[in-house]
Every structure is written in C-alpha cells, then in structure tokens.
Amino acid sequence: xxxxxxxxxxxxxxxxxxxxxLNAQQLKALKDHLDQEVDHHEKIIKEHQAAIQxxxxxxxxxxxxxxxx
Length: 69
Known about the structure:
Blueprint: H1 5-68
C-alpha cells in the first residue's frame, strides 16, 4: 500500500471503497435477516395468544358446566 506512488494511493482508495461496500452489504443482510426473525417471532406470539384465548374460553365453558351440575 505504501509503495507505488499515485497508483498505490489509487489502489488503496479502491480497496477501502471495496471494504466499505462489503461492510454495508453485510450490515444490510444482517438487518434483513434480523427483521425476518422479528416478523417470525411476532407471528408465533400471535398464534400463541390466540391459542391461549381458545384455552381460556374452553376453561370458562367447562367451569360453567360444572357450576350447573
């Protein structure tokens, strides 16, 4: 990097630009992946909340039947 005068400086600048672009791509890929993970977990949470409500409703129905027996 140090040797080569102007050509060395140009090559160093190109290398730094390449590294910056690569880092930006990697960060974007990581963010996209994490966004997908969050979406997935939020979907699972909603499914579990719906299941909880169904179970609570069944419990209420069962308790209502046992009170009248």
